[in-house]
Amino acid sequence: MAPTARPRYEDPHLYAEDILELAEKVQRAATVRKSIAKAEVENAVDRITQNAEIRGLLPDVLEILVDTVTTMPCYIDQPSATRIIKGLIPRKKVQDTIAIKIIGCLGNGPRKPSSAIQVALLRWLVMVYDVLENPGTLSRMYSILFNLLDMMSLRSHLCHLLSLITKRSSVKPFRIQALLELKRSIGEEHCLNALIHIYKTYYPDVIIDDPGIFRKGIFSHPDPEWIQNVFTIQQSHAALDLQQPGKSAFKVDTTTEGQASKRRRIELAVIPRVSTYQAVESSVTLEEVQSAQDLVAKLYKLELPNQLAAALDSPVLQRLLLLRPSDTSVDRIDNWLSAKLGDAMRVSSSSSSGTITRFGILLSKILDYTRMSRTLLPSLEEFLRKYIHVWDGKLHRDLILELLSFVPLTSYDDLSSNYLAPVEHLLLKSDETAAVALLRFYTAFLRNWAIQYAEKSPDTEDLTEETNIIRKFVKHVGQVCLQLQHTLKESAIMIDGILSFYESASSLPWDNSLFYIELPPDPLVYWFVFVGDAMALSRICGILSSYKTGFDIAIQRKSNDINVIETGGYPQSHVTHFNGFLMDICNCLWRSRAFMRQGAEPSSQDPAALGCNIPEPVTEQLSQAAQSRGEQLRSLFSFSHSPIFGNLAAECFRSLEEAQGVKKRHSGPVTQPSLKALGTMGGVKMSHLEYRIAVLKDLQEKGLMGMGEFMYNTMISLRTARASLGGATGKGK
């Protein structure tokens, strides 16, 4: 009878405890001869490896299985042992003890595993190097690994592992001599030549002879698909995030070209890597830095690498230059970049894909450096000034725009003619995505200026020009936003882009008089109020609330001019106009006095109201239309009647009724008279003010934070009422 084929699928009922039991069963079979039938062992190995391919193995299971194949005598057959090693897929980082056990089993001797098992284990150790819990453990065992190089069966994987853990401190004269003698005795071997080449990069003047030829990519990962599966498993179990892009901020990337991914190989071709060729034995080089503590301890002893342009791709070198600033270092980077960007001027969308890719990588690396330094290098500023006039507005758009957002303040005319006008010409005539990219560019521009000038003050230096530039810029953006609102009024991402800009503009450091409150255009403010989008209305209310805080801070600042103390240095007309925004929105949402104007009635309480800038004849026609339907225009935008908040207010009131357990329920929009009548009929008893505060609280809980911020910041009486009511208007707990 033919043997039954073993199933190749995951058993959904196989849990961690089952895998642990299976691993222990395999270990017993390896320790005690014929204690478990061969078929059972093979079945256990199959189930372990199948599960490992999908879920990975926990550290305790991994340790048991490594113990099983490294402890002699081992009574399971070699094919089963080999399958076990291939199935050692770690769910978490590989512990130091496992790496030590594997290294300890290498070599010749009666208590050592077979040569084939040693090769498989060493290859596995190379494969899991990127997920070792502490790679430094292997560095401490460097001498043991180096002394095994005379074993022909292990040599290729040993050279690979040594290439990963070799540091400048590992390169000693006696090891160089040993490698050269080994090369003379065994002849040309690519792996050995490649290791000698690595040694040569650390001490180029020590080894005179040519290290010999070796295959490009000889130290590539033995099984890229396997390690990618490991990364996927570990990510799904939230154990590691090693496959995400990015490098350690405090360690030089020593990845060789062979080990690197395709993109990383291109990066290495575009930006020079950190290399210190003039090092002597007493030198302290950047390649030796392994952590933040290392960098701090060696900060003033570190030698700068030969090519400082490597800072574009090395976070640790960036930090060194930041902590040890030098005009000379910046000039060296700028000179390299100037030559590199000269070639980039000719790159366009019609260029080859490889050229476009390399240009994009160069820009992304420059952007990383610029984010760190917060300033544009002179050569980059000059490049952007020229390139923007030949740019098509599409190629690497996000990178170009973010770099442009770091352009320094010089004069508004220069800013407008050399940067803003060309960018707007390209993006405003394009599609919706381009227009939103323009808004993001404006927002980044303003944020970068705020960061750059946050610590400067007009009290200590003349910043009049800077203040005027920022004012003109914000005012200009307001006009562009009006244009976009007119052409893309149905676009949700356009609405978000405009509001995001004004959220940044309203959150500037107002305690610094350098920053002047430039209000959004009136049509833009009122459009967001009446566009019919709850989140848009909440956000514009939050923006106006932030501006009010800015005015309050300005008024609190001391002024030598008694005529401007009450307005914080702003013209009275400017403050009055802003108060008109506040009054109009309060009239619509809170006071049931929509579209009322200053002095519209003899007893008017609307000293600054603008009536939402709607002409009186239009207001009269709207009022007549509302009356014909039995409604009052003034109250149609309150919480109960608003087309935006009506349903939310009704839902809030129902929850209040349910919390109080009343039988008499309210029907229709809640008003002050209806609430009073409801209370006398056994329904919810609360004042109209309590009801509106409850709705306001409910809107905030639903994420419409701007509504509460605006109301409580605008009306002092409302803050007092909320404090006196406490939690009485809550929904119940």
UniProtKB/TrEMBL annotation:
InterPro entries, alphabetized: CENP-I (IPR012485)
Organism domain of life: Eukaryota
Family of this protein: Belongs to the CENP-I/CTF3 family.
Cellular location(s): Chromosome, Centromere; Nucleus
Organism: Ascodesmis nigricans
One family name in Pfam for this protein: CENP-I
Keyword Electron transport applies: no
Entry's Gene Ontology BP terms: CENP-A containing chromatin assembly; mitotic sister chromatid segregation
Keyword field: Centromere, Chromosome, Nucleus
Protein name: Mis6-domain-containing protein
One GO cellular component term noted in the UniProt record for this chain: inner kinetochore
UniProt keyword annotation of RNA-binding present: no
